[in-house]
Amino acid sequence: MLKFTILLVRKPTLTHEEFVAHHKLAHSKLFMSVPAVAETVRRYVQQHRSDVNLPDMPMTRYDGITELWFDDLAGLARCFPIRNISSASVPMRPRSSICTLALSSF
Question: Which domain holds residue 100?
């Protein structure tokens, strides 16, 4: 089992609330409608930044996190045909300016 974590930073032209609304409502439906995604993603989790201030903890620079779970690397590769996916930074359009990718195996 692989967990693919994507850290998202919104475009500066969007408010955090606009980014979250798009990510939750439009992006998730569009993403899951892609046949390769529907066939290979076993779990899809979205998390969004909270403006809670914790003592001695810096605020996150990310607006959202997406976790995608796959059975294996072949499934991941079907969804994201990026050569070096374990250390990629990919420009995202239209709502995110960058995403940082991390890969964990279980």
Answer: 2-50+59-105
